[in-house]
């Protein structure tokens, strides 16, 4: 009998290979499943607040209401930093200073005159309505130790509990097991094919060779109907894609350039709830919304030189935002330490985002003030944008569709009352759309 080969040897080798791969997979799984030794840094023991009779919680509310416009706890603003102020002046002096600083300065008090001169001789508002108990509460708040800033995890650092499969089987282990099974099946099929070939050769069985077939491209060329249909399809498809490409020329939807000073609409319009028209005041009375002057920024940022810790995100840190405020100060020539303008300014080269073609006329005041269109209609939910982008395509089709579905605001507009009544009867509607009022006439936007 003819020997077909040592199949036991092949089987043993296959089993050894499978055992080795399973051992490596289990070892990797054990390493992934083992809890990482994370030693939480010992929390710093907060220093006890200065022994005062005040309530720091109430003091925080009073500070934010009466003091925060000119003072910060840890940085100089219009007035000096107030953290630890109780260690610099006695309580009786603070009562007099807060109640009426002007009288204390006029009396010639040396400490009062010194504070007045150190802060550019800016008079402090008197607060006679604050009782001594209220002042004690404010002092208690300013005497609290500064909280340590929470450090965000470094890029790529694993946060405990962030892994969705923590405590279970890792996805990598599952994929590795599936890959191993597929590899075993391929090896088994290869071995079976070799065994069958050897069995056929041993029994004198001849495997019929494959008959040559006509190449597919020759069969395609001989079928004239198929060639005609394919040619028509390719012509139509080419025309469709060429038309689509040409229609994108000049369409800058989703365009979001990087500005020289990072401005977050998410923080200003979203978190702080600043109205769009506060910065873009020209939108109510003019053709364009206008670029806000940096002086508008300084209305708030004169006393806001840094953001709160809660403002930072995973992508933009607190240090990043503080650095952008520093760029603003450099552009307007503001010395935050001396609390005055230096006179050295630098122009900011903002990058324009929305840019209509020169043959298109669009008036912001007509839409914002007269029609009452919300800014978000054209510019999207800007209160959620970290980086401002072009939300709408601003194409002619987009504008026409808006005119066709937007009803004309007639309340308090007697000028169009007669024509509105006539057109309402003509179209058989109670409220006219901008299109029915002539909003689709070419001369409305192109003249």
Question: How would you describe this protein?
Answer:
- The chain is mainly alpha-helical.
- It has 5 domains: 7-27 and 167-202; 56-142, Cytochrome Bc1 Complex, Chain D, domain 2 (Orthogonal Bundle); 216-247; 265-405, no CATH class; 414-445, no CATH class.
- 48% of the residues lie in helices and 1% in strands.
- A two-stranded antiparallel sheet has the order 1-2.
- Strand 1 and strand 2 form a beta hairpin.
- Helix 12 (294-301) crosses helix 13 (318-332).
- The longest helix has 32 residues, at 171-202.
- It is flat, with a radius of gyration of 38 Å.
- The N and C termini lie far apart (100 Å).
- The model is unreliable at 1-9 and 33-52 (pLDDT under 50).
- Residues 54-146 form the Cytochrome c domain.
- InterPro entries: Cyt_c-like_dom, Cyt_c-like_dom_sf, Cyt_c_III_dom, Multihaem_cyt_sf.
- Keywords: Electron transport, Heme, Iron, Membrane, Metal-binding, Signal, Transmembrane, Transmembrane helix, Transport.
- Residues 1-30 form the signal peptide.
- GO terms for molecular function: electron transfer activity; heme binding; metal ion binding.
Mean pLDDT level: 83
**What's the total count of β strands?**
2
SSE pattern, N- to C-terminal: HHHHHHHHHHHHHEEHHHHHH
Shape: flat
Output the radius of gyration: 38 Å
Q: For the terminal residues, how far apart are their CA atoms?
A: 100 Å
Tally of structural domains? 5
Structural class: mainly alpha
Q: Main beta sheet, described?
A: 2 strands, antiparallel
Low-pLDDT segments, ≥5 res: 1-9, 33-52
Helix fraction by DSSP (H/I, runs of at least 4): 40-55%
As laid out across the biggest beta sheet, the strand order is 1-2
Number of helices: 19
Signal peptide: 1-30
Keywords: Electron transport, Heme, Iron, Membrane, Metal-binding, Signal, Transmembrane, Transmembrane helix, Transport
GO molecular function: electron transfer activity; heme binding; metal ion binding
Protein name: Quinol:cytochrome c oxidoreductase pentaheme cytochrome subunit
């Amino acid at each position: 009998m003819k020997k077909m080969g040592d199949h036991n040897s092949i089987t043993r080798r296959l089993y050894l290979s499978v055992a080795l791969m399973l051992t490596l997979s289990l070892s990797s799984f054990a390493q992934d499943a083992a809890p990482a030794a994370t030693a939480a840094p010992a929390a710093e023991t907060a220093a006890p607040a200065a022994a005062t009779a005040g309530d720091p919680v109430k003091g925080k509310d009073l500070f934010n209401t009466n003091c925060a416009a000119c003072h910060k706890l840890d940085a100089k603003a219009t007035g000096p930093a107030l953290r630890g102020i109780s260690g610099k002046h006695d309580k009786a002096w603070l009562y007099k200073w807060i109640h009426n600083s002007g009288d204390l300065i006029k009396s010639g008090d040396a400490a009062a005159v010194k504070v007045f001169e150190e802060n550019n001789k800016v008079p402090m508002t008197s607060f006679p309505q604050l009782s001594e108990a209220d002042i004690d509460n404010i002092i208690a708040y300013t005497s609290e130790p500064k909280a340590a800033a929470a450090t965000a995890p470094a890029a790529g650092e694993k946060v405990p509990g962030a892994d969705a499969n923590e405590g279970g089987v890792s996805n990598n282990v599952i994929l590795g097991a599936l890959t191993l099974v597929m590899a075993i099946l391929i090896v088994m099929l290869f071995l079976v094919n070799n065994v069958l070939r050897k069995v056929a050769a041993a029994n004198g069985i001849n495997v019929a060779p494959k008959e040559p077939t006509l190449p597919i491209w020759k069969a395609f060329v001989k079928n004239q109907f198929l060639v005609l249909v394919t040619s028509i399809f390719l012509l139509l498809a080419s025309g469709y894609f060429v038309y689509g490409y040409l229609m994108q020329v000049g369409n800058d939807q989703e365009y979001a350039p990087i500005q020289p000073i990072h401005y977050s609409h998410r923080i200003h319009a979203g978190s702080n709830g600043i109205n769009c028209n506060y910065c873009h005041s020209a939108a109510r009375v003019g053709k364009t919304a206008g670029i806000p002057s940096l002086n508008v920024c300084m209305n708030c940022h004169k006393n806001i030189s840094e953001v709160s810790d809660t403002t930072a995100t995973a992508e933009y840190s607190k240090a990043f935002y503080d650095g952008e405020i520093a760029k603003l100060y450099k552009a307007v020539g503001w010395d935050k330490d001396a609390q005055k303008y230096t006179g050295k300014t630098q122009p900011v080269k903002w990058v324009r985002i929305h840019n209509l073609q020169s043959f298109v006329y669009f008036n912001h005041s007509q839409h914002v003030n007269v029609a009452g269109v919300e800014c978000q209609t054209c510019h999207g939910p800007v209160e959620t944008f970290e980086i401002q982008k072009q939300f709408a395509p601003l194409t002619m089709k987009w504008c026409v569709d808006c005119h066709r579905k937007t009803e004309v605001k007639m309340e308090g507009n007697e000028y169009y009352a007669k024509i509105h009544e006539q057109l309402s009867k003509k179209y058989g509607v109670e409220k006219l759309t901008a299109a029915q009022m002539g909003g689709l006439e070419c001369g409305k936007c192109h003249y």
